[in-house]
Write a structure and sequence with these properties.
The complex is a heterodimer of chains A (about 375) and B (about 260). Helix content of chain A is about 35%, strand content about 25%. Chain A has about 375 residues and is α+β, with helices and mostly antiparallel strands. Chain B has 2 domains: about 5-90, Beta Barrel (Elongation Factor Tu (Ef-tu), domain 3); about 100-260, 3-Layer(aba) Sandwich (Rossmann fold). Chain B has helices at about 70-75, 110-120, 145-155, 200-210, 245, 250-260, and strands spanning about 5-15, 15-25, 35-40, 45-50, 55, 60-65, 80-90, 100-105, 130-135, 155-160, 170-175, 190-195, 220, 235-240, 240, 250. Chain B starts with a strand and ends in a 5-residue tail after the last helix. In chain B, about 55% of the residues are buried. The chains are: A alpha+beta (about 375), B alpha/beta (about 260).
Chain lengths: ~375, ~260
């Protein structure tokens, strides 16, 4: 390890080399690219696929690409997708059942090898989101073995945030804008008078060996300082904040708040927030039988707690009203996730705000709940 | 992935409710404890959670009331057919640790309690008073009629009530809580086990807590939608509780607050 660099500086061509080095190692490289008016996550064949010169303009219920003069590759914040699209795919076959002429059943599971992904451009909030899904899907008494094999084979190249969006609140959730643990490589983009370059740090031996393989130069103090100040400045430019209170306690204490009626009057229960959320993991089981009637497949697909069917019981749905369904989503994300999985389920990426068709803002709802609670609390408890 | 189990016997308990005795086709699942549940699969229809109503070596007993697509398909199962079973999942009924044992069941809620009752009456000498209170809608909907006499003979006080009596009905009429006055138990040293419709669980648990049974020693078994049984599908949440892991058997100390919030 002594000869392998732990940090270095690469140029724009270094990103292209990195993508090629990852591909040469047999990895499917996935990262941001512009498609259909958005920065989406898709397979990259080279550095030119990256969204150089594109930024985003975000607001509640609004997402627009904007051109940037500086040519930055990562000056956009969270897009409509997250890495769960790849690690926890929307649809997955779990097992198949076959019935013979005597009615005897056999079950089988195909052992398809998981793809070996390299994710390029994992934002610090999304890095935490991946860790949260790890806990949900592999950290309990039963593990999702398909998820585990995809996850174990995935290499993560984080990119620190220097351009937070108007809907970002990672500082409130403690997830960014600097990259936390879990990356193989972490990049910080610097564009200034000294050029367009990336400070690269290796978090694992594989990251370090990749860095060694691509054209790089020693990390100079100027680039280090510029990278650090860009990330520090980003922390001061969050578009949103959560109320500075114990959110778990706030959610537990406001289950009967009037605010839920208010938000329910706006919520369409479309479930967009759950689809774009990088930690929402809920799924439903589907059984599909072919025309012979003797071959059936169990599929698992994403499901949303906003669907009426989600809590179906013989006596009817448990959460019949939009009020209870929005409350379930928000209190799970910000509160009961701690009880179930030991952390918040929210990473402050702001996707749910951007992609809500009516612009419901989870930070605004949390502030309103906090105000309602405080208005009802005796003065001495405030 | 489910494990195939063969139906040894399928007997109608009441109209629309059958008890299935299952034996593994090849390899058995790990042993189930009373109160734990299985995900039971009917070919092509899907699977659903059922607390086992009996276990004997490798054999499993399930009591299934036809209510949805999966349970209807299971209720149609006949001896010789095959089903898929996953499990064991979730928490079970703890072994009673106190002196007196009180079991309160409503309707199909007696099914998850049956293995506990059988275990308790089989070790009757370990306990002080053992009371089993059973409520059903109609006399014809009482489960395990053939066994109840045996429970009585083994020394359990079994009281039965129905909402709608029929001619010749000599037992009680009304809700199951009415029977609490005639059950014999010292609240401070009682372990209570409750299963039935949610509204009944709430009323019974509150009543028992009001009479002084410690909330940690009142166990209730709860029902929610479940698609996986393994804590990954997210459907079975009741506030902080992921019921396929933290439940289905939960102490009233943990269930009381989430069960008091409407539509949680």
């Amino acid at each position: 390890m002594a000869d392998v660099p732990r940090s270095a500086v690469i140029g724009r061509d270094g990103l292209d080399s990195l993508i090629r080095a990852l591909s040469a190692r047999g990895r499917t490289v996935v990262g941001p690219t512009v498609r259909d008016g958005a920065v989406v996550l898709a397979e990259l064949s080279g550095g030119d696929d990256l969204p150089y010169g594109w930024g985003v303009e975000l607001e509640a219920g609004r997402y627009r690409l904007v051109e940037r003069a500086d040519g930055a590759a990562f000056a956009h914040s969270a897009g409509p997708q997250s890495w769960k699209t790849f690690l926890h795919p929307q649809r997955e076959r779990q097992w198949t059942a076959d019935r013979d002429s005597d009615g005897a059943m056999t079950f089988s599971q195909e052992a398809t090898p998981a793809p070996s992904y390299a994710f390029l451009g994992v934002r610090p909030c999304d890095l935490r989101a991946i860790a949260i899904q790890d806990r949900v899907l592999t950290g309990g008494p039963h593990e999702d073995s398909n998820y585990r094999s995809r996850r174990e084979r995935a290499l993560l190249v984080a990119v620190e945030c220097t351009e937070p969006g108007a809907t970002c609140f990672c500082v409130s959730m403690g997830t960014g804008p600097a990259a936390g643990p879990g990356y193989d490589l972490a990049l910080t983009e610097v564009v200034d008078g000294a050029g367009h370059r990336f400070l690269v740090r290796a978090g694992t031996a594989e990251g370090a060996s990749l860095l060694d393989e691509i054209p790089h130069r020693t990390a100079d103090p100027g680039t280090r300082a510029a990278a650090e100040s860009a990330v520090t400045a980003a922390a001061d430019h969050m578009g949103r904040t959560m109320p500075p209170v114990d959110l778990q306690a706030l959610m537990r204490g406001t289950l009967s708040a009037e605010r839920w009626d208010d938000v329910a009057s706006r919520c369409l229960t479309c479930g967009n927030c759950t689809m774009v959320c990088p930690t929402c993991f809920c799924t439903t089981a589907e059984d599909i039988t072919d025309l012979t009637g003797d071959h059936s497949e169990r599929w698992r697909r994403w499901e949303s707690c906003f669907d009426l069917e989600f809590t179906h019981l013989p006596g009817g749905p448990v959460r019949a009203t939009p009020h209870s369904r929005y409350r379930q989503w928000a209190t799970h994300k910000l509160g009961t996730w701690y009880d179930q999985f030991g952390s918040s389920g929210c990473v402050g990426c702001g996707r749910c705000i951007v992609w809500c068709p009516v612009g419901i803002d989870i930070t605004e709802e949390a502030h309103a709940l906090a105000r309602e609670r405080d208005a009802h609390a005796p003065a001495e408890e405030r | 992935m489910p494990v195939p189990y063969r139906v040894l016997r399928a007997g109608e308990e009441t109209p629309g409710t059958v008890t299935l005795e299952l034996v593994p086709e090849h390899v058995a699942l790990n042993p189930f404890r009373p109160g734990q549940f299985a995900m039971v699969y009917a070919f092509g229809a899907g699977d659903a959670p059922f607390s086992v109503s009996g276990m004997d070596g490798d054999r499993l007993t399930l009591t299934v009331r036809s209510a949805g697509a999966v349970s209807a398909a299971l209720a149609r199962a006949r001896a010789g057919g095959t089903l898929g079973v996953r499990g064991p999942f979730g928490t079970g009924w703890d072994e009673p640790a106190g002196r007196d044992v009180l079991v309160v069941a409503g309707g199909i809620g007696l099914a998850p309690l049956r293995p506990l009752v059988r275990r308790t009456v089989a070790a009757r000498e370990r306990y002080g008073e053992v009371s089993v209170l059973i409520g059903a809608r109609r006399p014809g909907e009482l489960l395990y009629n053939g066994e109840i006499l045996g429970w009585r003979e083994a020394g359990a006080r079994v009281l039965v009530t129905v909402d709608r009596p029929e001619p010749g009905w000599a037992d009680d009429v009304g809700v199951v809580t009415n029977l609490l006055d005639r059950a014999v138990f010292d609240p401070a040293v009682t372990d209570a086990f409750v299963c039935g419709p949610e509204v009944m669980i709430r009323v019974v648990a509150r009543e028992l807590a009001g009479r002084g049974v410690p909330a940690e020693r009142i166990r209730v078994s709860l029902e929610r939608t479940m698609h996986c049984g393994t804590g990954h599908c997210g459907h079975c949440q009741l506030g902080p509780l992921l019921l396929c892991q933290a439940g289905p058997v939960v102490s009233w100390a943990r269930a009381r607050h989430p069960m008091s919030v409407r539509e949680l």
